[in-house]
Design goal:
The protein is an all-alpha fold and 241 residues long. The protein has one domain. Helices cover 77% and strands 0% of the residues. It is built from 10 helices and no strands. Helix 3 packs parallel to helix 9 and helix 4 crosses helix 9. The longest helix is centred in the C-terminal third of the chain and has 32 residues. It starts with 9 loop residues before the first helix and ends with a helix.
Amino acid sequence: MTRMLTSMTAQEYLFAALGLVMMGIALFGLVPDAFAHGVTEGDKGYIQEITGVQPIAFLYLGAKHMMTGYDHLLFLFGVIFFLYRLKDVTIYVTLFAVGHVITLLSGVLLHISFSPYIIDAIIGFSVVYKALDNMGAFQRWFGVQPNTKAATFIFGLVHGFGLATKILEYEISTDGLLANLIFFNIGVEIGQILALVGMLIAITYWRKTGNFMRHAYGANALMMMLGFLLMGYQITGYFVA
């Protein structure tokens, strides 16, 4: 798979990203309430009030979480960035989905709890990792290429814990819990498929314009910077909160 090279090195992009993170930390430090890793009050209140199996509610919440989960979507965008065949897209997205299903269900049912800030910081790191992988940084810096399938599955596990953290914050009733979790996960997958279709349409059109390879490196550098910013946001939130 071809990796892009430009006059600006990966190290220079890395320093630029770190600078962006420092500015973000300085800004966010002025508004600590912005770091609340929570659910909208309307959704949280509704879920806390209902009991029993509620398929529509949890399908909606799962789809909404994925469609508005910019960190999840950024990682998925990085995963499919250099995938041209639908078969490969299916394999990688399935690995990611299986990973987050495992930790979503086990995290909630076994009440495995982590700091949401730490989990989301790792999710931000997954965006950085995928961008660097697409830029060929690991091969140039270390002379090795990580197993991309294994990495996608492992980060899927981490993203699943992020989903489990959200569910645990709902403090939902144990009545119908397993069924509701299944419906929530189905909703997540529906949202993921819808988002993926949009991404594939956009990236396919971009590739046909003829300037995809010329701007691919810069696009991944920007994605890396956003991942660093997400990490800085969550790490700062951990200490402020």
